[in-house]
Write a structure and sequence with these properties.
D-Maltodextrin-Binding Protein, domain 2, 11 helices, 2 domains, single chain, 3-stranded antiparallel β-sheet
């Protein structure tokens, strides 16, 4: 090896070591200013509630303000794009849900490149619960499956919008039952719930926390789209325990998780993940995170990425089959 080649190799190693050392220092000094958690949903929704349970304790741990920036609209693409384009310094995080996974499957023209974001930590998972209006002549899952088939193409399911979790889960249920449904999209979860309680629609797949309306006598609950029991104010029958064989395999849930710009240095990614996890594991924070209807399900960057990769084909199949698209 010539002296020139040795010099070039030494210079290359020097650059790499310098970059690594700089990233370590950056991680150690983080944060040096306000941290923003972008929530691509309206204030008061489930994702927003999760963010607000975490932010004050995270701010206390970091000694810097942690603010929530609600950026609804565009099927979550507005807020997601904001984080995808943010500086790769760890001071802008995204707390999102199913839209992160499904938007690239439904939208031909995204306002951001999905490769510009990286999964950081999954916080919780929320199984869907099947609620029906009081006017529906079904009191268990098997009866409702029969009702859907007897009224093929006439049973209306509310959702919080085209391509939302309630929408796609309803289409999955229709396929499992062997029936077609009417999809009735509303501008958010609250209007969808109100429509169900007013008798405008027959059914809605929503979070476990909505059982409070069942307790108030305003609608009925038939079961939870899971293979196990979940924490709830009322007993919920898992679909796996249904007397209808076609419903036993059915499950549908959404997730809540943090993402960050993909170019954030690895050392800083790990630092933020460790701090986030430590905060969510605080009992009072864990209680706040699960109160909207989720089950704590903490996954680090690699496991969260693997979870999303495993879920993607399942969602993609129903989106293709039912021709679900968003502009």
């Amino acid at each position: 090896m010539s002296i020139s080649q040795k010099f070039k190799r030494a210079a290359t190693w020097g650059v790499l070591i310098g970059a690594w050392a700089g990233a370590v220092v950056q991680a150690a000094e983080f944060p040096d200013k306000q941290v923003t958690i972008v929530v691509p949903y309206a204030a008061g929704g489930f994702t927003d509630q999760v963010a607000r349970a975490i932010a004050p304790v995270l701010a206390e741990k970091w000694g810097k303000p942690v603010v929530i920036d609600n950026r609804p609209g565009g099927g979550t693409t507005i807020g997601t794009a904001l984080v995808a384009r943010a500086p790769a310094d760890g001071h802008t995080l995204l707390l999102s849900s199913l839209g992160y996974l499904t938007n690239p499957l439904m939208m031909p023209r995204l306002p951001y490149d999905p490769q510009d974001l990286k999964p950081l930590m999954m916080v919780s998972e929320s199984p869907s619960v099947l609620y029906v209006g009081k006017q529906v002549p079904a009191n268990n899952l098997a009866e409702f499956a029969s009702y859907m088939r007897a009224n093929d193409g006439k049973v209306a399911f509310a959702s919080s919008g085209v391509g939302s979790s309630p929408h796609i889960c309803a289409e999955m249920l229709a396929s499992a039952v062997g029936a077609h449904i009417i999809h009735a999209p509303y501008r958010g979860n609250a209007p969808a719930l109100n429509a169900l309680m007013a008798g405008e629609v027959a059914a809605l797949l929503d979070a476990p926390s909505s059982v409070s309306y069942v307790q108030a006598g305003r609608m009925k609950v038939l079961g939870v789209a899971s293979d196990k029991a979940v924490r709830s104010a009322l007993p919920l029958t898992p679909f796996s325990q249904s007397s209808a064989p076609e419903l036993k395999p059915y499950s549908c849930s959404s997730f809540f998780g943090f993402f960050m710009p993909a170019k954030v240095p690895a050392a800083l990614q790990q630092r933020i993940y460790r701090d986030l996890r430590a905060v969510v594991e605080v009992p009072a924070v864990a209680e706040g995170v699960t109160r909207p209807g989720g089950e704590l399900h903490l996954l680090g960057p690699e496991d969260f990425t693997a979870y999303l990769d495993a879920q993607r084909p399942r969602w993609a199949a129903v989106i293709r089959e039912k021709h679900i698209t968003q502009e």
